[in-house]
Design goal:
181 residues; mainly alpha; 2 domains; 7 helices; 9% strand; flat
Length: 181
């Protein structure tokens, strides 16, 4: 059992089995390449493929059959365990929101934020992780001044119009001499 990107729901796919990978094609375009699982009763669910539906139904995480696949690294598992062990009322909801943050921004930055919180024995709630990842709001993005470009050094590299005009007239004069009408 494999998960695929949610954008492919309802799409007909051609899947090619290779020795180490599965390639999914929509028409002649490769839509995904994932590592092939060997053996029976194997599964691989990528959290990025299912997080958009889980964030709408965070209560579904508790009973999700492939829940263990939704911990991309040990750090994420430790964050979830901390939320549950400290009795956070909505541990599942917080964890799903953390995963959503990782999927929509940077998994590495979210993991770093979780690590910092765990090292300081702070609770890795969604709000705490989000504040450490600190996504800039539109008002916080600095407006860069429009640069003044001086292209005069490049103009010096181009022959002047008078020289170009002279060469153009000379070419016509030579052509007229060679081809009298």
């Amino acid at each position: 059992m494999y998960s695929v990107p949610s954008r492919l729901i309802g799409t007909s796919l051609l899947v090619r089995l290779k020795a180490e990978t599965l390639e999914g094609y929509v028409g002649s375009t490769v839509a995904f390449t994932i590592p092939r699982l060997i053996g029976k009763q194997q599964h691989r669910v990528d959290y990025r493929h299912v997080i958009w539906s889980l964030v709408r139904k965070p209560g579904a995480f508790a009973a999700y059959r492939y829940r263990d696949d939704l911990f991309p690294t040990t750090t994420f598992r430790l964050a979830y365990d901390q939320l549950v062990s400290r009795g956070v009322e909505r541990a599942d909801r917080d964890y799903v929101r953390i995963l959503h943050l990782a999927a929509s921004t940077s998994e590495t930055e979210v993991e770093t934020a979780i690590t910092l919180l765990l090292e300081t024995r702070a609770l890795p709630t969604f709000d705490a992780v989000r504040d450490l990842v600190h996504l800039p709001h539109a008002s916080e993005v600095l407006a860069l001044p429009t640069p003044h470009l001086d292209l005069s050094p490049y103009d010096n590299l181009i022959p002047s119009r008078s020289i170009h005009a002279y060469n153009h007239q000379s070419t016509h004069a030579i052509t007229d001499t060679l081809n009298p009408t």
